[in-house]
Write the structure tokens for this entry.
Amino acid sequence: MDGPDETPQLRARQLKAAIDHLGARRWRLAEVQCRLRLSDDAGDVEAMLLLALAIAASGEAARAAPFLDRVRRARPDHADPCRDLETMVPRVPRSVVARQYRACLRLTPADARLRREFARYLLDNAEPDAALTVLRDAEDSPDTFNLRGMALAETGKFKEAARCFNGAARLDPDSSAGWANLGMMLKIEGRFDESLAAYDRAIARSDNDPQIKVNRAITLLHSGRWEDAWQDFEARFARPGYAAPSNAPLLPGVDGRTRLDGTRILVWHEEGFGDTLQVARYLPMLAGLGAEVTASVPGPLLRLLRGMPGIAVIQAGESELPPHDFQCPFFSLPRAFGTTIRTVPGDPYLFADPALTAAWAARLPGDGLRAGLVWAGQARHWLHGFTSVDQRRSVGLAAFAPLATVRGVRFVSLQAGTAAAQGQEPPLGMELTDPMELVHDFADTAAVIANLDVVISVDTSVAHLAGAMGKPVFLLDRFDNCWRWLHGRTDSPWYPSMTIFRQPRPGDWNAAMHRAAASLASLAVFRASQLVQSLPAVLATAA
């Protein structure tokens, strides 16, 4: 006869054995172990869940669906059991998870919660069109409206998304989600006062959510109200997972006249390469006030930023931090200097190494107007939700076809990453030189740019680099553009040499590209006229 503790101990052993089998992908053995446990206690929900996961992971979606449904009904206050399948370790292929969700929906098509969970999963995996299909027959609710709105926004249908978020806020005015999402869509439409009002309602209902506060600050930045925005933008420090490399005090505001002699300041890379390149302009300003400035940046930026006089540069994560009195993430520098649209330091501040520039000159076309091209950004798959942003900001080389019709232009690829392969099949009539296999870092990229006449780029780090060097830049900007390019402008206070060609409608690159082609043609004519004017002087010298 079993002792009083034998049954709990036996159950623990059986469940552990099933979990071990799942971890080793021994699906059948896990199923057998779970069935043994269920033969002793048919109501053991945990064993039922493990059984369902074993069957689902093996790819037998239809057979797993009834067991998952039983778990779902047995624990209505828990997350959907399909989420357990999503998070299994080792990971189950996404196709298997999606097939399981569909099988469960076929079994219980009226389960609104399951339908929303499946739509959420599809959105998390960058499948907004599929999410909209799943939600087509879903009952109207705040959650459904929010999911529909997010899916529509991901596909660039911002007006329709705003209507959904407005519906969510109307059905549940006490929830912050609908108001916050509505605020984001109104910002994209340039309705900034309405956006701020929506964010204020969201914050009143969820004052402890730092992301909502950051998004409100971004609306202020986008509308040009920088004086009100920078301090609020610091709410990003409270976001989950945000970690500073130092516990030193944050650099306070400086007015440009206060001396900082002997003050040691650590400035550290925060997010994208373009962000750091954009605000590196403040490093010499700090040094000019007498501060001892150390910039901690990723490896690809090391050589380039070491060319800035008076700045010590170290590689992030690979060097012991030097002693410092204050620390400052790069994107807190505009706040420290109280930057407004009228006071952005606009002079060139990054320069190519002369020896590198000369070396790269020999690898590039020697005639015609030389235009560098960038057609795709860095996808950053590790950032939640960034994949769809990258898809909207990237255009693809084929869309540059209008530029290929401009006479007298030699094109140079500045494209990095997997999208660079598109350069092997340029648009008809485009002569494209691709030196990027020999480019090791941004110092090399700067040397290539120094040999060009213009850079034509989507919103990516190369556009920032070219602008920081004072090189003419044609920025191809998506409709739902980044705040730093402001709203409705064709110029940028950050880069006086930049011209912005913005989509007039979401996804409409054709109009923007044709305007860029017309400007490129004017630039080519101007350059040709300069060469003609200088020709007599050249001939006189030769004589």
